[in-house]
Amino acid sequence: LFLDKGLPEMLTGKTRGLGKLFSATLAAGQARHIRSSALTPGLKTVSSNLCYGGTVTRYTHESESTKTPMGFSVYMPPNPDKKPVPVLYWLSGLTCDDTNCMIKAGAQRHLAEHNIAMVCPDTSPRTLALPGETASWDFGRGAGFYLDAVVAPFDVNYKMYSYVAKELPQVIEANFNVDKTRKSIFGHSMGGLGALNVFLHNRDQYKSVSAFSPICNPSNSPWGQKAFQGYLGPDKAAWAAWDPALQLDALPDAAVPRILISQGTKDEFLVTQLQPESLRKHPNIRVHFHEGYDHSYYFIATFMRMHIAHHASRLAEAK
Questions:
Q1: How far is CA 319 from CA 84, 207, 313, 315, in A?
Q2: How confident is the model at residue 318 (pLDDT cuts 50, 70, 90)?
């Protein structure tokens, strides 16, 4: 009977019950996660999906930092008690956008278990046509390096540090049911570099940091040198402020923060680009080498639980 009547009716749109139930459930979930009945003007919803009892939603808005439209994705956990939840910011790597981690890393299950939100920004502006912006995959579009450019033609729009460290948290805290006093940050590759830099520049704002396969010493990495030259210019003294290895070397022993890093031993970029051996040897800097793993999201998905547990512990301490 179902095959003769019920299934054809569902396929032709005559049976609406499941669709209505899904829409109502999704709307209820979104309402529970947003601070008020309306988002900040200019913040537009692109898509929304249920995931482990919470919602993954993509948004766009006009950024004051980049002077362009910017996109970001947010996972809000089920949060049954409706209290503000801590928030974890993820910064993606070269060529990625705001969807890669949400789709590939399997983070939502662990975020739901710990009742933590996650925000994933894009890696650069997308709507420009600057000279040289799309000439290579490791510089320009999709490769903003989470710093503020000072070299033309990138100096006007490529303000990814200001966007990620200042503007985006303000947008999130104004619109979503998150605890502004409890946030942490992590990322992968270029995003691991960005996470370390944002944390080291704002240690009073973030409770913890971790990274998968970060570019640890960009001043001595081909990726980093290309980005620094193009965004910051030839003055290597200016590069030091965006180089985690150099920043950590400059700290007194007592001021070295706790940092968790996961690195695959079969990562094709390990020796030439990532250089974890350049990081200061200190008990607070834990570099875990994982035998046989590469640079991909298969690696990230395998150890995502460990990283979220690391942040959950520090965020819980901050209550």
A1: 11, 11, 11, 7
A2: confident
Task: Tell me which of 267, 290, 307, 311 is the catalytic residue.
Answer: 267
Annotated catalytic residue 282: no
**CA 172 to CA 187: how far, in whole Å?**
18
Across the range 188-207, mean pLDDT stands at 98
In this prediction, residue 7 has a pLDDT band, given cuts at 50, 70 and 90, of: very low
Residue 1 pLDDT exceeds 90: no
pTM over 0.85: yes
Cα distance between residue 202 and residue 120, in whole Å: 18
Tokens read off for 41: 């003007």
The gap from C-alpha 228 to its chain's centroid, in whole angstroms, comes to: 21
* pLDDT at 81 (0 to 100): 85
List 188, 295, 310, 311, catalytic entry: 295
Cβ-count burial 116-126 (b if 16+ within 10 Å, e if not): bbbbbbbbbbe
Catalytic residue among 73, 92, 184, 189: 189
Q: What pLDDT is attached to residue 319?
A: 77
Laid out side by side, the sheet with 44-51 consists of: 44-51, 54-62, 69-76, 117-121, 85-91, 178-188, 209-212, 259-264, 285-290
- Residues 166 and 157: beta-carbon distance below 8 Å: no
Give the pLDDT of residue 80: 87
The tally of CA atoms less than 13 A away on the side-chain side of residue 144 is 32
Q: Look up 296 and say whether it is catalytic.
A: no
Q: What is the pLDDT of residue 138?
A: 98
Contacts with 249 (C-beta within 8 Å, 6 or more apart), sequence order: 280
Backbone angles phi, psi at 191, to 5 degrees: -70, -30
Which residues, other chains included, contact 286 with Cβ-Cβ below 8 Å and sequence gap of 6+? Answer: 258, 259, 260, 261
Residue 224 has pLDDT above 60, yes or no: yes
SS3 67: coil
Catalytic annotation present for 81: no
